[in-house]
């Protein structure tokens, strides 16, 4: 008899098994799509719509030791992004991606999807993360400051999605024309995107828009659409060869097969939560032929 009361009942389309490094991960094999989510960071490392090819990039050098953040997939950045608004917060991108989350439920959804819910409570913040795996991937993160917690730093969050692309130098990123952005590579604020974005070098930009962004990928013959939900920012990141070479958990050539398009609420959009208040942020990812 299963006496583990912390483990929810799973439908036949899901299994909780040891993954890489022996780390616990949820496998979902729904009629409309499959996915893999590690409890460490509630970190989704794979999503494939039924009959399609994988949409999410995870580095072949990613570390699965329940300590380091996982390189690739969808790191959850919370309750701050990078070093936070104050610029001195550690660990980078907050504690969400390096904490063990609890799996609360896994339920079949209409249309052949499966939804998994994860929770985490720390430092006066209760986080709820919903992952809906189907023909589309829908991720929703809610953060609530506990009623008795003192008001703290402004809250930032990002769904730091690593998209798998056939050749990053050939992709075109549309949906950002005319949007203001902070260029973190040059340090220049208040830049304006003109036309579609092409990736021709190290790219690290925080755009002031959460509207849909489309990555057209001729090498894979597909368009991947990332739609922010209540996102006020979109971060676009590629480390390029030199940046990837400097990362211990990414091979130098892997920069060419990924592009991060992150629905976010960061920087000037950070929210100061009063005790009992909450904020939520989502992203929806869908694929269509080119
Ligand atoms: O190396 P990580 O801590 O995972 O961060 C990877 C990247 O995340 C975001 O996209 C930031 O905008 C970048 O500045 C950062 O380099």
TrEMBL record:
EC no. given is 5.1.3.15
The record ties this protein, via CDD domains, to: D-hex-6-P-epi_like (cd09020)
Q: Which Pfam families match?
A: Aldose_epim
Enzyme class label? isomerase
- Active-site residues, Swiss-Prot/TrEMBL: 160, 262
The similarity comment for this entry is:
Belongs to the glucose-6-phosphate 1-epimerase family.
Protein name as catalogued:
Putative glucose-6-phosphate 1-epimerase
Gene source species: Actinomyces ruminicola
